[in-house]
Amino acid sequence: MSLLTVSNLSLRIGETPILRDIDLSVDAGQVLGIIGESGSGKSMTALSIMQLAPAGTQFGGSIVLDGQELIGRPERDMCAIRGRDVGMVFQEPMTALNPLMTIGDQVAETVLVHRRIARAEAERIASETLDRVGLPAAAFPRDRYPHELSGGQRQRVVIAMAIAAGPKLIIADEPTTALDVTTQAQVLTLLKRLVDEDGLGLILITHDLAVVAGIADTVAIMKAGEVVEAGPTVELFRNLTHPYSKALFEASSHQPPRNPPAVTGGTPVLAVDEVVRDYPLHRTRLFAPPKHFRAVDHVSLKIERGENVGLVGESGCGKSTLARAIMALEPIQGGAIAIDGSWLDPRHGASFDTRRKLQVVFQDPYGSFNPRQRVDTLVSEPFHLLKSAAPQGAERDKRIARALEEVGLSSADAHKYIHEFSGGQRQRVAIARALIIEPSLIILDEAVSALDVSIRAQILDLLANLSDRLQLSYLFISHDLSVVRAITDRVLVMRSGKIVEDGPTEQVFANPQHAYTQELLAATPNLERALREREAAA
Where are the domains of the chain? Predict the structure, then answer.
């Protein structure tokens, strides 16, 4: 008998159908991967298993966990089942953890809620569980708080909380989306090891086909609340039949057509010369000499007009610090930065005229907009950087409409609010805002990492087209090496504040010279490589 059996599951909220005839099963010691775009019903399926669906939900069908029917069970019973029989690992660990509690207390709390034991015993179990997930007490004291850990370390704490009470099933909802490739590989290896050692069932929800191909035993592909295709992993991916599944497969390896203009020399769009960025550290003794942490260590780079350059590296390597220095949002302690030949003042930053030549697109478009303002106001924000008076009246409307149409939206969208758009459309609005004052360089900081594969392919096509047509230059910061390979002409690899490798993108990916670059490439999920390895091991 399967550990979890979902049969003919349907879910309605009011009169709106959300899930239709879902059939899934997970055995002990098995990994089920659920794939699909945003809105396909992946997370709602997980919430249904946990019986955490919104108020007013009407269920149909059956959800049986280890012989127990979950649909219709009293909330008191479900509170005991959640955590004890089913553990949950969420996408964003910082929001899943209590910032006011130490990591030891948070894991111990899970044990205390579900097992009648003394607090000292719960703390011992919590410490052992944190050891199991790769956070030994010697290096990670149990009195640390979540903000004192990295993203990958926080995700390990969330996993420890999920397994501390000894559940039979773990549901991991996009557990590695925000992590860099090496940390992602470590977290996936950890989850697989726990499945093998404890005989857990694992449901892994993701939009990354390569991640699923490397870890899952079976796969279910969802679209619009239905499972359109399911089966053993290798067999399914080698014999896709549904058009939606094939489209996802093609989008996962999509490479935009590029026709970059020839580099003509002249003044580079961006010149970074031996830049140093230090952060002061707290004194350990009253009269101790001041110390500092060097986040950017004598970095030099150039970007020519129309050139797309990728900047890759693990979290904490200095990528975003360097970007903030280029944007004159942080002072530098050494070196120099020039935008279109205009050197930045290391103390006073950049003039409005210089800032006009540089724009940025952030990872989370919703978080970078004021939700109370209409799109026309949001897109026209950069007008304050113009030397001459900002366009008014019909000219302003014309510029806004042109910017929106450049990114595949319509002029009518100017009168909407940002909550009325999907994630991909919001990112198009963010790109329109960056384009409206015709900059020379756009910094894209993880601009597509949170998007589904098909939406990501559309945004990459858009960026490539704009770059080739308008001779835009990009500094593309990302931990997703497949994205960097798809859109950039040259790639820089950063580690511990230094550029350790620099070269044409295809050359670096095909023949990496530095050991760190080789490590990054080896850790990057690759769909075809994962399938070949699974076939060879069979």
Answer: 266-283+291-357+441-454+470-538, 367-438
Strand partners, 221: 35, 229
Tokens representing 252 are 């996962």
List, as one string, the DSSP characters of 102-127.
-HHHHHHHHHHHHS---HHHHHHHHH
Rounded CA-CA distance 164/160 in Å is: 6
Closest CA to 423 of 389, 381, 373, 458: 458
**Residue 66, exposed/middle/buried by CB under 10 A (0-12, 13-18, 19+)?**
middle
Cα distances from 246 to residues 32, 209, 218, 257, 486, in angstroms, run 19, 11, 17, 20, 19
Along the chain (538 residues), what's the average pLDDT of each consecutive run of 10 residues?
89 89 92 89 90 86 91 88 89 85 94 89 93 89 89 88 91 83 86 90 89 91 92 92 90 80 75 91 78 89 91 86 88 89 76 83 81 90 77 85 88 89 84 88 85 84 87 88 88 93 92 92 86 83
Q: Which residues, 6+ apart, have CB-to-CB distance to 141 below 8 Å?
A: none
Tell me the CATH architecture of domain 266-283+291-357+441-454+470-538: 3-Layer(aba) Sandwich (3.40)
pTM: 0.84
Tokens read off for 433: 């805002």
CA separation, residue 309 to residues 254, 490, 503 (Å): 18, 5, 10
- Strands 334-339 and 342-343, by their bridges, are antiparallel
Task: Identify the pLDDT of residue 346.
Answer: 66
- Evaluate whether 150 touches 184 at the Cβ level (below 8 Å): no
Six token digits for residue 288? 């101790």
Look-up of token digits 């929001």: 95
3-state secondary structure of 39: coil
Amino acid symbol at 63: I
- pLDDT digit string (tens) for 176-195? 876 778 888 888 888 999 89
Structure tokens at 412: 């009518």
Q: Give Cβ neighbours of residue 510 (< 8 Å, ≥ 6 apart).
A: none
CA atoms within 13 A of residue 175's CA, in its CB half-sphere: 33
